[in-house]
């Protein structure tokens, strides 16, 4: 799930309210995956309706989006389109990992190993076409816009931020920085209390921002070199150099200045290197979108969630009331948007 360069980056912890009236482009697939991974029963089983349809993602959209909208954030979901051809290997590996996790989940449940079962259940999560379609239907009913990217959602979201149509990207991955987003927010949709693996300890997870320019200045490298550094570690499009982590990659970039020089010195190759680098710098994006927020349609939300997916009408109604409730003096947050 993205490039692992987090240990090199400085970030600032914030409150959700610090993003009030910011337009935040949410990496839809990444966020839906988080909802599917986290919103589960104790044995790891995702939330489902009476027909067996998974509803964890719908619960996440309704309640987590209500929380951030209440705080004044203006979310827009950005969905993936067709991935570049070099991602096929990564997609295949993820499929194999999910299938392996499913088998281990079933085995752990049979043995009564609750924590192991939950861990493997999370790893078995998948965002499929039905989950995407249902998510878009709920977003429409809630009045939250979404954009269909021609290729990678993070690339489109980064373009929207650079263009000035959004203020920040929300994603757990760091690829947004490789695509050039000036500001990235992590933990926006997964903030709150979180249990540490294998420990009976809960930590308070808060949103954090990462500023691209500040980090490049701190690391003493250019954006192009950050891409080269990521290629050393491994991205969704290449395996990286064996045994090279973020700190070693930074050392190599400082010493050799570019991925090409590093590969030459080590007599190595990265398939599709130039294509991948160019994709990070100039990805396939679109201007064919319109960002318009509207008031939620209670009837549509209740019909979809309660009528089709067995949600509690009382809980859904309360969430809808919060969406329309005043968060300022005499004026609702939503009214400020229209």
Report on this structure:
With 338 residues, this protein is of the alpha/beta class. The protein has helices at residues 28-38, 56-70, 88-110, 114-123, 129-142, 153-163, 175-178, 212-219, 223-233, 246-256, 259-266, 273-281, 298-308, 313-324, and strands at residues 12-13, 23-27, 74-79, 146-148, 168-170, 183-186, 192-195, 202-205, 208-211. The protein has a seven-stranded mixed β-sheet with strand order 1-9-6-5-2-3-4, with helices on both faces. The protein has a two-stranded antiparallel ribbon with strand order 7-8. Helix 7 (175-178) links the parallel strand 5 and strand 6 (183-186). The protein starts with 11 loop residues before the first strand and ends in a 14-residue tail after the last helix.
Provide the descriptors you would attach to this structure in a database record.
alpha/beta, 7-stranded mixed β-sheet, globular
Largest sheet: 7 strands, mixed
Number of strands: 9
Helix content: 40-55%
Main sheet: which strands, in order across?
Answer: 1-9-6-5-2-3-4
| Strand proportion | 5-15%
Class per helix and strand makeup:
alpha/beta
pLDDT average, as an integer? 87
Low-pLDDT sequence parts: 326-334
Shape: globular
Number of helical stretches of at least 4 residues: 14
Element order: H for helix, E for strand: EEHHEHHHEHEHEEEEHHHHHHH
How large, in whole angstroms, is the Cα Rg?
21 Å
Termini Cα gap = 36 Å
